[in-house]
Amino acid sequence: MANPLFFAIVPAKGHSERVPDKNIRPMSGRPLLEYIFETLSRVPVIERIILDTDSTKIADMVATRFDVEISMRPEHLCCDFVSVNRLIEHVMGLFPSQHLFLQTHVTNPFLAAETITAACRFFLGQSEYDSLFTVLRHQSRFYDHQFRPVNHDPAELIRTQDLPPLFEENSNLYLFSRDSFTKTKARIGAAPYLWEMAPMEAVDIDVESDFVLAEAIARGRTGKCT
Question: What is d(CA 190, CA 187) in angstroms, rounded to the nearest whole number?
Answer without folding.
Answer: 10
